[in-house]
Design brief:
It is a single chain. It contains 10 helices and no strands. By secondary structure, the chain is mainly alpha-helical. It has 3 domains: 79 residues, no CATH class; 49 residues, no CATH class; 47 residues. Helix 4 packs across helix 7 and helix 8 packs across helix 9. The longest helix has 36 residues. It is elongated. The termini are far apart.
Length: 224
């Protein structure tokens, strides 16, 4: 409901965020004004919200996260020793070994952070924020690590090819067209080889998952 949404934003600013001085909150409090969307858009910029006004759910999550951070900052002594009910009986050793084991995927800060990264990396949105986080990890590993960037920047040098040694199999009646056809055929063969390599890699990857643990595809046989 639009009215409830606007009241919610005003309540957050008045009670928790308090970014504006009281006398500067008039436009935001005037929820029945036709200019309220403009006031809200300005407010989002002023609090450095990374989302657009049309992204209501993401904006709400982010503002709630901001409110929680500010609430904690104002009452740090009260909350610093608090322990989530679900984490009281967890194994401390396991928790220290895996810092993300108790990650709260419903935390507004977590959702806002994942969404901001997804927008920055132009990753398709998904209802499950963990799925988006996995996509971000894959993209970073494959494209943004130092090794991946260095590999992408490497120039590929090919070997010279003597076209006259490759039989075209037909004659167009034009020497220039014949040479162009030979080049296209060689490029097509190269693409097929690359595709076959990827298919083989995929088959090996699937076999590694579903095969018996004793299976060693490198030896070309099953068992010992």
């Amino acid at each position: 409901d639009e009215t409830e949404f606007r009241n919610f934003i005003v309540w957050l600013e008045d009670q928790k965020i308090r970014h504006y001085k009281i006398e500067d909150r008039g436009n935001l409090r005037n929820i029945h004004s036709d200019d309220w969307p403009k006031s809200f858009e300005k407010y989002m910029k002023d609090v450095n919200c990374p989302f657009k006004m049309q992204e209501r759910q993401e904006t709400v999550d982010w503002l709630l996260g901001l409110a929680v951070r500010l609430e904690y900052g104002d009452n740090a002594d009260k909350y610093k020793d608090s322990t989530p009910d679900g984490a009281k009986n967890t194994d401390n050793t396991a928790k220290n070994a895996e810092p993300l084991i108790n990650l709260d995927v419903n935390n507004p800060d977590f959702k806002a952070g994942v969404m901001a990264l997804a927008n920055l990396l132009q990753i398709q949105r998904h209802d499950d924020y963990l799925v988006m986080l996995k996509a971000i990890r894959i993209l970073v590993q494959e494209r943004l690590t130092q090794d991946a960037i260095a590999k992408a920047n490497q120039s590929k040098e090919g070997l010279p090819v003597a076209l006259e040694k490759h039989i075209l199999g037909f004659d167009t009646g034009d020497a220039v067209l014949n040479e162009a056809a030979q080049i296209l055929r060689l490029l097509h063969i190269e693409e097929l080889r690359e595709l076959q390599t990827k298919i083989n890699e995929a088959i090996v990857a699937v076999q590694a998952i579903i095969a018996d643990p004793k299976t060693d595809h490198r030896l070309g046989k099953v068992g010992r």
